């Protein structure tokens, strides 16, 4: 698993280092990266991403006017919102430009079909349900 993460982030580092934009048109752009894993495990892997990998990615991306923001819902879902966890997670995925899935030995849960509003940003979910 660490090998896959290392390859992914090495590719991202390379992409950032190869991005050459003339200084006259540089504008800061944000890139949201949603981190997905089961909630009860993978804490150390998520901690490594948040404490080590993303600060380094931000440092390397800054000269190119890119700001990377990790979307980490471990701390963002309140007790009142836990019934809507699937909808909240899917909303954040829709708002993100990248998704990092951390896979391990645990399968997590298979939530019931989410009751999502009929909005265009959820069209990909309905397509997945048809397959």
TrEMBL record:
Q: Which residues form the DUF4062 domain?
A: 32-112
Which Pfam families has this protein been placed in? DUF4062
What does UniProt give as GO cellular component? telomerase holoenzyme complex
Residue runs in coiled coils: none
InterPro entries, A to Z: DUF4062, Telomerase_Complex_Comp
Q: Which GO terms describe its biological process?
A: telomere maintenance via recombination
The record's GO molecular-function terms, alphabetically, read: telomerase activity; telomerase RNA binding
Return the protein name: DUF4062 domain-containing protein
Look up and give the organism this protein is from. Maylandia zebra
The record lists the lineage as: Eukaryota, Metazoa, Chordata, Craniata, Vertebrata
